[in-house]
Amino acid sequence: MKKEDEDFYLKLWLYDPHFINSQIVVAYRNCLDFYDETFKRRQENKRFPFDKFHSLRDKLEQFEWDLHIESDYYDENDLNEWLEEGALTEKEVSRIKEKAYDAVRIKDEDGSFLQYSLDKGDVWIGALRR
Description:
Helix content: 10-25%
Number of helices: 3
Distance between the termini: 15 Å
């Protein structure tokens, strides 16, 4: 990417506890800012869990880490459909809504609906220190 002589996004997304979802993300040109709003920043201030990755500690200390929320999203329309189909009970739907840390109204061509965001873990976003 440095050879391209353009700005680029190059970060490590480290999921905790869902490490299997971790990835290296790179973008540039039209997609440069695409990933800036992918995750909501966690308000809680935690230290990076180096102890969980003790064999990689030296490498991970080369990064600046920002803490974000790994979320599951549930659309109101899907919840209603799953309820009608019997895939979820009223109690399960209520629990999802109660556990949501955020509910956002989304507008599309068919109208609008609520989308519920549930906290399922941390995402540590790391950029190499300069």
